[in-house]
Records
---
Amino acid sequence: MKMLNPLNKRFWGGIVLALVVYAVIQILLTTGIFDDVTRSTLFLICINIMLAVSLNLINGVTGQFSIGHAGFMSVGAYVSAILTLNFDVPFVLALIIAGIVAALCGILIGIPTLRLNGDYLAIATLGFGEIIRIVMLNTEYVGGASGLSGIPNKATWTIMFLFTLITIVIITNFIRSTHGRACIAIRENEIAAEAMGINTTLYKVIAFSLGALFAGMAGGLSAHTFYVINPGSFNFLKSFEILVMVVLGGLGSTAGAVVGAVVLTVLFTVLQDFPELRMILYSGILILMMIFRPKGLLGSTGISLKKFAKKEATKNDSISSESAS
Amino acid sequence: MEYFIQQLINGISVGSIYALIALGYTMVYGIIKLINFAHGDVFMVGSFIGLYSARNLSNAGLPPVLVLLLSLVISMTVSALLGISIERLAYKPLRKASRIAVLITAIGVSFLLEYTGVAIVGPQAQGFPEILNKKQYTLFGSIQVDSNQIMILGTTVVLMIILQFIVHRTKIGKAMRAVSYDMEAARLMGINVDRTISATFAIGSALAAAAGVIFGMTYNSVDPMMGVLPGLKAFVAAVLGGIGSIPGALVGGLLLGTVETEVSSLGYSSWRDGVAFAVLILILIFKPSGLFGKNVREKV
């Protein structure tokens, strides 16, 4: 947990930068320079950053190809919505519980499926994502096919920002910790990692449930931003969208995931009136990225504050030397 | 009991469609270890080509049987070409890349086909022309079989026999088996690996297209998103039978189709899609090599 060292310039640099971003946007929102459309785009960006960063932990860092991320998101969305709707639980607490329930689902799904490798895992996670959706569809308590509506709009910019920041900080720290190194080792060569004494199943499950935790929180935030949730909004397409963000930014790079999420969300809003064109563009991006620049826009570089703290960066930036694939 | 048998017959006709699609998955996986996510969409394209050729040929006044055969052949040929071009353009540049990279590309190709389809023909479903008049036959008292179901089973069996012949009796089939056994050794023995892989894609895509035409005739409706679920379920069928095994794909497809129909006939039709995935996960956990698959140990 190097980043938590108070002497670490990069960490404090990052916090200051984050606070500045927060303050500027807060001012823009309160003074009304940002209208409602911009505001909801902004919130969507935050949610997508959380999703992309958490998926990147599973797909990019640990190398376990999961395409069921929307399933965890839906668990979080439903749990938090029911908690605030039916039980009057405070919003932040509901979000945390939602994340924990999603993480438990992650453990439950991860333990049997993470023994599978590569493509089989992909299909199994896809299957679980679909099963979660079908269970929601058939449960009357959560509204069946029509879903839940009238969810209180409790997501504020402060909460949104805080959760996004926490996601990024915790996941970045995790990647740079001993456990994160173990995950990277699993990605690079699972058999070698096992031979070096790494409990591969344990670390895969940890990464998987940590990813699910934040996906669940993101789901809760999205439910409380857009009032309505139904099983259809958490289908394979949503998982695919998150995957494109991660791939665009560069598998294995947290900064890349953030950039990918921002770029694609903006693109998404601009192309809102042309849904087919948007999807064609998404899939085109995916194919061309894989063929011509599999590293993604940023490659697998670590957090991009390097420019501000170059000396520190050269010291503890060995992550960027590893390749993404 | 009769109801059960009736459902069994319905299940077999759904299962035949899964089996035909599953063959493409299993052959491609056997040869380059790739889950070709785009396969379900090749099935969709095949169905659409079948739809347009059937429409035009019926308008030209040809006899129904000829219309059916010609649409099948046209659709299979075009889809085979599509399969080859997908392989050449999207997968071949990545032959040396990591498997995840190829998998992501496959997902990309899948969505590209779907949404190009939406952009060209629109998202709404289109009716498939009724080529053959449906006839009901009654067997053993109350069990009903219609001519479509017989046609489905017949087409599937004929295509399977052709496939078995190609794989086991021809030179390209021998090359396919060799490449799937050991690509490098096959290359050293002078087999043109790239051409063999293309041939595999062509055959798999042609089978998917045949399934697409049959699907259109059975359900009378085709749309650009129709390939997603049958594609995924056919993959489940391939895994169930043991991926890489051709008889496995057939058995897996029939088994999955039957299980699904039985589940919906018991009144749980909204859970039907979940069952396929539950079957998949159970298989993957307890017997990842499937019913007919070989258990391959990973070597360091």
Note: Chain B has a mean pLDDT of 86.
---
Amino acid sequence: MARLFSLSRAIVQFRGRGLAMAAGSAKLTGAPGACLVFLPDWTKLMPHRTFFAFIFPSLLAMLLFITLPIVSVAVQSLFHEHEAILTSVESCDPFGCQTQTKVDSAAMAAIKKEHPLGQFAGLSNYTDHNHLALKDLGQIFASGAGWRGIASQIMDLPFYRALAFTLVYCFAVTPLAMVLGFIIALAVNTMPRFWRGPAIFVSILPMIITPLVGSLILSWMFNPAGILGATLQSLSGDPRLSLRASATLTWLVLLTYGIWTNGPFSFVVFYAGLQTVPLDTLESAKIDGASRWESTRFVIIPHLLPLATFVALVQLMDNFRVFEPIVGFSAEANATSLSWLVYNDLVSQDAQQFGSAAATSMMTIIGVIILLVPVLIRTWREFSRKVV
Amino acid sequence: MKMSVTRALAGGAISLLALAFSANLASADCGIQGAGSVRILSNDFEALRVVNEAAAACATDKVTVKANATAEHKNIQGPALSANPAEYTVAMVANNSIVPLLNGGLIRPLDELVAKYGSSLKPNQLIKIDGKIMAIAFMGNGQHLFFRKDILDKAGLQPPKSYEDLLADAKIIKDKGLLEYPLAASDKPGWDLAAEFVNMYLGTGGEFFAKDSAELAIDNDNGKKVLETMLAMTKFMKPEYLTYDANELNKVWDSGSVALMNQWGSLAGAAIDSAKANPDVAKNTGFAAAPTINGGKIPAAALWWDGFTIAKNIPDADAAVSFQAMIHGISPETIAAHPAAATWLVAGYTPGPAAVGVIGNAQGGARAYPMQPYMGLLHTALSSELADFIAGKQDAAAALAKVKAAYDTAAKAGGFLK
């Protein structure tokens, strides 16, 4: 009984955070990070054995479906294919005969049986021209070009080009989508109760729509023959204006799409958070003569801050792996991302490059960890302060 | 040939449905000897669906037939045929997609099966590697000229025979105010953009690689000429030309805003089918061989064949019934019922209007898409590294240097270069 009581008290105490966890579990990608942050609480509330029994299935699934594949990718990223044994053969097709180079598949099969992973290549998959391009960087800096020249040469390297867009997307979309979500949440919260349901439904539509479909729809609308594209042309009076032609406009459209599609997640979490804002504090603020803006600034925002940290965490992780809009908007000419590089190595061609794709994947994971470290440290400090 | 990713994703869902329904669709006995299972993996376009359906008609009590037509076939075929027993007994391939299967030793020689069951095949349908029959081709394909008769007439022009003429014609059409953007090409960075380069480079007569090695050899006058021609064409294209792949190109053509373009033969039938296409455009659409380039004598386009292979890791009984079902799928009777679906290589086929371009390419002596094992890596390098050039942000020499750097890295990791 006593334990039950303390549990319910703890739930009340951590209302905001518990809510955040609920929202996090709706989005699978956010769950591991979120769990890490909030774990120590629950261990205090139940015996370790019970806790372990609860968490075991999830741990097992994470080990099987997340940890092991990552380890396998990490191992693959250290290998090159075996040196190909080539033979020349006569080949004939409907258009004639010619001598043709071919891989000696029997000889290769024997080598592969002995060393299935290929030849060990150390970190060369990471440092080569298609990734970190250390040698190219050295030459660029040694060339003595001005900072402008250096920047444009670096942006010419496939990895840095992708990294640049990925980071811009991450750091532009995350805060702006959170602001958008927060504003919508405030607006919906002031609506008459009857209209709230429909308003919530409409507001979270962008999240419900599959990213690929959402970006395709927008892409067609921005087509010069589509409604938005044609309107822009007639408004600007420039019949050549096309949002899909220039790099800057393509980036803007992708960022706008990102904010549109990510806003609802922040909205859902903030809206739920708004329901927990203590009414008495709000009322006393009003009595003290606080304006609407002031009570938002000094009561609501501080109350929602822990939630904002959580949302930022999840959104940063998600946005760092931006992929679908690039495909949906056919934006490959002007914008690529790290995930797109992995995809390009593996899927769209006749020759799959596993080592290269694995190296890019590992660097994406490292990137996500680097992004999360400051947020994690902050959360941990705040948390320790409150608990202790 | 190459579908856009989005099409592929949508197509994947549809072909799953198709798979569910196609089993035992028809059960006319087509005289198959023996019993076993036929499981077909193929790309997803009309001609292949025709073949799949005809093969599926061979299903009986003793023979089961399933077909999976998907644009993702290239990504599926390797792992699916590596399994033992293989997931599919038949893999439909083209010049490029047979290479990974040959490299991996995943398909079986067909000489015995051809001797037993292949009496309806013509000698030029047999794809022989090192003297062994490894695939049976049944259709030809390739990119060739699409032109608008009405617009060329109004401009007083004949269909261009060379890229130099094509550029001059485009200028005349534009100057006369007939069309604002008379040209189009599948210049979307990715598989399509690389294919444009490969087509034109083949037309120059140049070789992609140094003899008997994986050393890249495109950084020469031919390579520069190809890039300059590609860029010159973009001046006559809609500003968003960077977003057009082959499927999108047919839609642009259908809207009537383009007078000249190079497009896949397998999409020619759809462009002149007035039931599906814009009738005004369809009745004025004509086809010819791809133009030559830089004074060359051959059409600047790769020749492709589509055919079928039989998996190695399957029981011989399955291989025998699969081969027979496929022979029925590409039989002269099947082809006679669908003459417009493709440029068939099968006996008794009389080419229709949609086949003019591909046949023109073949008769003009166009070269086949290269089958070197490292060609796929070059195609990948071209697909991403030419993006800045075709957007007009870089010169040809820099673009070729970038392609070489990306290819060399990939070829090293792939074990082809030291």
Note: Chain B touches chain A through 76 residues (CB under 8 Å).
---
Amino acid sequence: MKGYLRPYIGKLVFIWLVALLGIGASIALPLIGKEVIDGPVAHGDQGALLPLGLLALGVGVLEALLTFLRRWAQVGPVLGLETRIRDDLYRHLQRLPMAFHNEWQSGQLLSRATTDLSAIRRFLGFGMLFLVMNILQLTTVTIVLLNMYWPLGLLVAGSAVPIVVVSLRFEKRYILISRRVQDEQGDLATLVEESAIGIRTIKAFGRRHHVFDSFDDSALKVYGTSMEKVRHSARFFTFLEVIPNFTLALVLLLGALAVGGGDLSLGTLVAFTTLMLQLVWPIASLGYILAMSQEAMTAADRVMEVMDTVPEIQDGADTAREPRGHLRFEGVEYRFPGAESPVLDDLWLEVRPGETVAVVGATGSGKTTLTSLVPRLLDPTGGRVTIDGHDVRELELGSLRQIVATAFEEPTLFSMSVRENLTLGHLDSSEEELDAAIRTAQAQFVYDLPWGLDTRIGEQGMSLSGGQRQRLALARAVLSKPRILVLDDTLSALDVETEALVEEALRRVLRDATGIVVAHRASTVLLADKVALLRGGTITHVGTHHELLEAVPEYRELLAQDADLDPSEGALR
Amino acid sequence: MTTPTKAWRGVASEEQDELDEKVSVLLRERSRKLLGDLLKPHKKQIAVLTAIIIVSNMAGLAIPYLVKVGIDEGIPPMLKGTGTGTLLTVVGVILAAAATQALTRQAFLKLSGRIGQDILLELRRRVFDHFQRLSLSFHEKYTSGRVISRLTSDIEAIAELLQSGFDGLVTAVLTMFGTAALLIVLDLHLGLLALIPLPLLLLFTRWFRRQSAIVYRRTRETVALVIVHFVESMTGIRAVQAFRREHRNQEIFKQLNADYRDANARSMQLLAIFMPGIKLIGNVTVAGVLVYGGWLALHQEVTVGVLAAFLLYLRQFYEPMQEISQFYNTLQSAGAALEKLSGVLEERPAVPEPRKPTPLESARGKVRFEDVRFAYTEEMPILPKLDLTIPAGQSVALVGATGAGKTTLAKLISRFYDPAEGRVLLDGVDLTVLDEPTLRRAVVMVTQENFLFSGTVADNIRFGRPDATDREVREAAKAIGAHEFISALPDGYDTEVGKRGGRMSAGQRQLVAFARAFLADPAVLILDEATSSLDVPSERLVQRALRTILADRTALIIAHRLSTVEIADRVLVMERGEIVEDGHPDELIAASGRFASLHRAWIESLS
């Protein structure tokens, strides 16, 4: 946090100075009132009245001016800080690897980027200053009171003891509750997010009520915890209001006795009680401000939780110059966090420059995991992946991901224009390149959209068909003319005719590039020069399609469409 | 803008920055109506609350007055030596007042907190439920990010109002009125002098209210954009990283974030003018009272006690003004949020539920399209005019190129959309007169999307029928051929699927989705590309299962893999929204039409 405050030190010092002067002015004003009562009124000195009045006016105007300056100067630092933390949080999240994002619901992340940061902003913009100003005002007024008449002043100072004790107890408990509320709100946001993104599934099954019930459970939880918070703070806030009022009653009593004893002037007692009344509000608001600061603290904790997560996937130092695209998996192991057994285990595979290898394996055998290792969306937990002999971890991420492009099975489209969806990070592509990529992927349908390439496609491209989305994803992958092209079952939703056209075009692309093709169908496998069979987390066989078809029963089972070839058929039936 | 009322219905006004007077009045009315609606059930509680707060404030206000009485009435007799009785009584009353204030204050905080939380809960429920009711066509445009922003940041803005705002306002208003009354009672002349700036104050406040209304709308909008972008990039983080989109995303985010900052800056600057402005007016008045009051006291027209009390009360009069403006602040922010929420609540589902639904005990599954016309945009009808009858129990395969209208047909049967003309009938009943539960029990659609909710595998299968037993869930998975891989997962059926099923492969998710549909046991099952991610053995298992599953129910199968088509009783070939071939698969293969050539191409692709 400190780093974020540094650029604003000058301004902050200014704000504090102005704030201090402001407190001075607000204390001075009643003192002038006392002077009027004790001076001109007591002595019948009419001439002194006007100058004192003008002084009060001047101090009053000054106080307003100082308030203005403080508030105006605050805008920059407070918002600057919030904005910078949010920018940095976003940047950090973009750097955190898939392993992190697979675990963290975006609702939880979102509540950190919005709710928590505004809690911090409110504290910095309002709470922190008021907390310090209140405490300052309390001490100054107490000192003034001590000076005025020390026995009563001492009484006022003593009333701080129960306040401090109870505040500390309150804080401890409050911090627990507010953390719980914030976490539960994050869970609620997650539910909202799922219900919005999964709306089609919910509608398809008519599960509106079911989904509502789980939302309701969560909302009720937030309700319950919030109520606990309300009850807890109600007790505390009330306590804070009672103490100064009780003290005031005592002061009046003892003060009257002192006046009676001649130790105290009437004017001083009036001023004393006036000043004391000024204490009521700062003390009462202390509760609110303390609560606010607790919330800001838990919010900061929650934000730091994410910020302190070190991206496991760090940039390497090398940039690959003229990569040839020689890809090797050397004894690769991958284990999901917390999983007992690895998905990939001692996996060896070599793809020479310009060669294309099809990876074939049963559902859930780890094909997608394998392809994610190349652009380092995941890092292997054992062994290494090399390109042209360099461990991919030694390469600069940007440079690595320029060499490797992946067309995912699930296309992941964003609610922006077709053009932007295609270029994504590859912003400098020309119209010709775009057109070539669109043609390769047989995605010419984009030209028929209402505004062509500038048509904004809906979230997840849901207004497009599955095949259209896949073709866009493919166009995106081939656009940057990558050295290594990874196709993760990219053609599954295409109809046979389109698939044939796409395959023909892809053959041309793959002639110059190193390719990894994940496939379920014989037709796609035929894009490759050789096939690798992935079984039990490792590559068991490498060969041509026909070789494997002949020699490996498991392969035959996976790829042969003709059910009669399946030896396990009888058993399954 | 000819008819503002219509054009601004629902969420249409969301992206507008400046609104003309008429529209903003309309929007304010709409928000106010929602607020009134939310407050209505709490009428009694609010009445109690008001009573409590009046007592509490009277007790609070009495304290400085009592101090004055103590000084004016209690001390002189004591000085004269006629006893301390009055003083002690006053002190006692002060203690009683403080105790009363404390008790009522606590009661107030608890009660108002409860009302606030009740309203929030109700609002959350209402908005969430409404979003779920709205049609897909709405969601496709609105995007999930905005749904999330409505249900998180907008609700929070209202929460803030209910938590701190209400408390502050009631206290402040009562304190102000009470103080004003006291000032006049204490001394008419001084009191009137102290209240002279009141009209100025009201004008100033009005200016502030107008300005802040504009500013807060802007804040709500900019924060929504931040949220939308944030959610989308986190949802698609894999593509973002793989295609090095980080940099551009950062630029966009920075811009949106900066817009949000600027909107916030404007609101803070507005406050920076308003708050000191109030203070200025207050302080000038204090100075005036001091001089005039001093002069009056000098001429013995008021007592010293009265003057002291005046100076005290004046402070109390202007302090709440700041409180009130703070309230205005949260009110404006909440008002802007309320405006968005009331807009959402005003949206009507494009496929409305019938007022008086026709009961349909158990559907047999006869589907009929009668002269159905459908278009997303008027110029390009997807289905120009479709007539089709699918007898109960028939399995129909839909074949055709992308954009031929296959999915649209499927979506019409599931009533994701309503046809522009014509009717879609189930067992002779128009879909538009069936209520949702009936329709969804009868018709279920499995798409290639396979959305998994966070929870266990079993939870996700049970989504098809929430009251299914564990055994039924297992049976469904077994029937579809998913049991094996699920049992192999670390915790079997109780394995958490992770965020959106991130821990499973696409094929596995598809199998879970299949099991889900199987468990739902509908009369009409629609499979839209539902097997595309499966490997051949799994697909074979699914197909074998389908033979049994589809035996006694109507099915509509959209698939590019003609292997799925082979289990169908009937094939429909579609082109540009029209059915160009219709017949038994074998028949069509034997003929020389579109399907025959498609089939040949497919056989070749298997090689």
Note: Chain B has two domains: 23-346, 367-606.
